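Session log. Operator J.P. requested a structure for one protein chain; no other inputs attached. Running the standard single-chain path with token output.
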Amino acid sequence: MTEILVRAIARGEVREHVASFAQLHGVRPEEFDADFMDWWFFQNPTHDGLLSGAFDGDKLVGYVGFAAQHLRVEGRRVSAAILSSAFTHPDYRGKGLFQRLIRFLVEAAGARGHEAVFGWPNETALRIYLGRLGFSAMFSVDRSARPVSWGPLGARFGAPGVFAATCVGAAFDRMLPLRLGRYRYEVGPPGEEEWQGFMARVLADSDCVLERPHAYVRWRLSRPRREYIEVRILDEGHTLRGWAAARLPIPGEPQRLHVGDFLVAPRSRGAPRALFAACAMEARRHSLEQVYTIARSARIGGSLASLGFLSRRSTTPIVAIATSNADLSLYRRWEYRDADMDMF
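Structure written below.
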């Protein structure tokens, strides 16, 4: 084995190393999603993503990257790097390669002016992040779901099970109803001016939240091989009060509407209920069984619980490291959403 070199991977190199990327992912080259890598690391409107690789001679034996995102923290605009897609070759594990890759990215992020680096590791990587790399555990998130079609929950018990589940679901829906109330909903993207006014109200009401400029949202919902819908609720004056972006399932996934991003304007009474009522209607329209989302703050979690969502806590937390003297405690207030990382 020659000395391992860790360096940035240029956009044009991704296609050249498809076979190696595929091997790291454990798939055939024709199954590897190079379009996603190009989209996530190189097409982000912030134009500041980074993909790094570890090379043993000409052989790619590991890689990880980050996408740049902007957050508003107590009214201050900051830039952060979101880690994504960490893979190392089995023959090179246990040799400190993963640590070298992460340290390379943290140093590069600091040089580019990113205040902090965030990631959501699995249980194995978590010990390395916290123990050897100096990251801090920030917060865990809740995965929440609400059935909109109850019969399938009892399908394993045949027709009696379907009947029983349907009856239970009907009672549940009466106790915790989803309804539009005074709002109406539309499906489709908001206009740029409408979006800017809506986001200005959301940002003014948040201590720590990801910025979502119109161009960023349009890019975020253009991920290759995914189909998204956008749900908007409007008041009597046709003002946008709530917005959700949801992904339809791909083959092999649970039959759920994956609400990966949602925002409600402040002082919009009943808007969360109306927004998720609209999402439930869209789930039924697409013959899906549930509405699923991720959120982390107690305020949002409590709101979802009151809407009949059942939640479970993530097994690992979001982790972070400051590249400067940033106060990471401020990020504990982050109104985290699924789309803030690379899951949606």
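Operator note: The mean pLDDT is 91.
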